[in-house]
Amino acid sequence: MKTILSYGVCLLRGKVLMALLSVVMLLPVAASAQTKAIMAFGDSLTAGYGLMDHEGLVPQLRDWLAAQGQEVRVINAGVSGDTTAGGLARLEWSLTPDIGGIMVTLGGNDMLRGIDPASARENLRGILQIASDNGLAILVVGMPGPVNYGADYKQEFEAMYPELATEFGALFAPSFFAGLGEGTPAELQPLFQPDGIHPNATGVGMIVQELGPHVLKLIQRVQGGS
Prior knowledge:
The chain is an alpha/beta fold. Helices cover 55% and strands 12% of the residues. The chain starts with a helix and ends with a helix.
């Protein structure tokens, strides 16, 4: 009788052990799927310059995605004042294994400083190459070129975004500011902070509404979709 009971206990323990092992084996897969994050890689526009913590691009984007049923971590990798050269210098050591996609929103400071578009293009190409080499899904966000350096400068700067996106097979959002609509600087001023460069919380919310669907496509790529 004791032998039968001992056998039954051992059998029960074995089944429990196998069940536990099955759960443990599944945990890394589940955790990996849940922890793949999106990196928002940019400058002060990404960092949320001049805004409360909850008003910036990344927090508002997180909220927008959550409202779409996407509980995805979005990492704020915006550095105020950063240029494409600065982004290229810091990207590689900024990447961690839990990052599955990157949204690149750089170039605004290059334009403000009048940096040669050819130089900015090569820096941006280097950023996309690193992202591609690390197997990341990529979203390139364009910037409207300035008018004060002439039509050629504006055209060359704006052209690098879609051309590089095509070169690397990346997703492309034509303009960071698309959500603000058309209008003169005076008409759009209520959507900006006093400096006239950085959007206020309301402006950021409108930008997120336009940018959000592009980020959803990026998430689909991270999750293995087309």
